[in-house]
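Re: the 281-residue chain
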Amino acid sequence: MSAPAQQSTTGANATSSTASATAPAPTSTTSTPSNTFSRYRNGNRNRENNQRSTPRLFPKIPEIETLATSSEHKGQDFAKFQKSLYHHVLTTFRNSKDMSQAILEFTDPLNALKKARPSLSDIRNENNLNLIPPSEKESEATKFTREADNNDRKEMAKIFFNNEVKAHTERIRDLTQNLTILWATILGQCTPALQEEINGEPDYLVKAAEFDSIWLLQTLQKITAGVNKTTNKYYSVFKAVKSFYATQQAQGEGIDEFFHKFDTAKDLVQLFGADIVNVSE
């Protein structure tokens, strides 16, 4: 009786040993702090690498070209951005023709518009509404007819003048609003890196408070050309002049497009306070 019992006990122990040997070890589902930090760090590094390798060129308005820093996009054409911006403004803004000077010539259109206020004398001359002077030996009937005609001319000139003043006031209001919208439109077409460079400009806070879109366009033209506040100004002039003299008409490029590109290169030189040498005959 003792031998079979001993064999049974031995068999049970062997079976238990075999089961414990073949059973998989339990997997721990608890991650250590070091492993969590390592995964977090690796995830951040991968995201940073993706952001560095792929510039975020997603314009808010597809019809307008996107602007980036010179390190993100070398050889970008600022004139092409300028042209697309101008076309968008012409087709979407109210009284958009007043914006031409700001976008294409970098001059303030608001001051020029305020100076061009309507004049009653100009309206009379333009519409042939000047008063008829009395003639010699004027009869009473002729005088009555002339004065009645002059009264009509006065009323017509007054109506035209009031309409012109109203339209002029609307143009000033629309232009002020358009320049503000233009600031946001331009910044929306810039990559985050380019926006950071703009924010770092010494005059940014003052110009942003005034929504000075002309300053913004001039500054963007410099930065996209590879020039910023830390660049040597003499080197900037040298690069601008070199780029001007290297401007050539590309194959298949129209004369108007080439002239605009040529004019833009000239403006960039003048933007740095330099000038092109004039060759006289």
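Residues 173 and 251 are 44 Å apart (CA to CA).
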